[in-house]
Write a structure and sequence with these properties.
CATH superfamily of the largest domain: Hotdog Thioesterase
Distance between the termini: 39 Å
Number of helices: 3
Helix content: 10-25%
Strand order of the largest sheet: 1-3-4-5-2-7-10-9-8-6
Number of domains: 2
């Protein structure tokens, strides 16, 4: 790795507000830590938040190798992986007190104008801030495509958007999408299994008055339990989510 690439770290202690009934950190809170440290980089790198440009999140690939539990000491780290003409790819990790990476997220971002949301092209001046000298064509992250046919026999249920879901940009915060599925997945699945991978594709923003439905289907594929989710209204697609499960270990 390029020695100039900027890595930002922050320590946390897992508290009651971070965990579920099994005393394990929820994916929503993992994503919140990652979002916070991403924003913290603006202060560390002296990036002007009033600048006309902004990064918007396109996709998330969260991999959970081991869950942090109540009272654990963890370290959240982020660093850019690559930049190409329009996109930035960024990695987040969470380490335990032994320095072991127990969670890793690969994310893809798009540079846009804050005012018009038009796509902006990256240049060397922008990437130099993050420790890069050159753009790297074709080097980035992709997530699995979801076949639309998987939802053919699924009835959508209205997605209720709470005021607490809305962030400073007046739309549902990106981290909230990690919590939505739990309200629509069968309780028997939640009792027997736990998540080890979540992939999210953000297609369009959802606001407090957005009328949309959530479609959810859980099935076994090649001895792997998978949940597919889409948030949509008619032909308008807002978000897709793919979740991979493993059986809980209660020992």
């Amino acid at each position: 790795m390029n020695d100039k690439i900027v890595k930002i770290r922050e320590k946390h202690r897992v508290s009651y507000s971070h965990v579920d009934e099994n005393k394990k950190v929820t994916p929503h809170n993992m994503a919140r830590w990652m979002q916070d440290i991403f924003l913290k980089q603006d202060d560390i790198l002296d990036i002007d938040r009033d600048d006309e440009l902004a990064w918007i999140l396109l996709s998330y690939d969260l991999n959970i190798y081991k869950y942090p539990v109540l009272s654990d000491e963890i370290t959240v780290t982020t660093y850019p992986y690559s930049f190409n003409r329009f996109y930035g790819n960024r990695i987040f990790t969470i380490e335990n007190s032994d320095g072991e990476i127990i969670i890793e997220a690969k994310t893809k971002w798009l540079l846009v104008s804050k005012e018009s949301f038009s796509i902006k092209q990256l240049n060397k001046d922008i990437i130099k801030t993050y420790g890069f000298d050159e753009l790297e064509k074709g080097k980035g992250f992709q997530i699995d495509a979801i076949d639309e046919e998987v939802f053919d026999a699924v009835e959508g249920k209205k997605l209720f958007i709470r005021h607490d879901d809305i962030d400073i940009n007046s739309h549902v915060n990106n981290t909230v999408y990690f919590s939505y599925p739990f309200d629509y997945i069968d309780r028997d699945i939640l009792k027997k299994y736990e998540i080890y991978k979540i992939q999210i594709l953000y297609k369009d923003s959802i606001r407090i008055d957005t009328d949309c439905d959530l479609y959810s289907v859980t099935k076994e594929e090649d001895e792997q339990m998978v949940t597919y989710i889409k948030i949509a209204k008619g032909d308008k697609l807002y978000t897709t989510i793919k979740i991979l499960w493993k059986e809980r270990d209660y020992k």
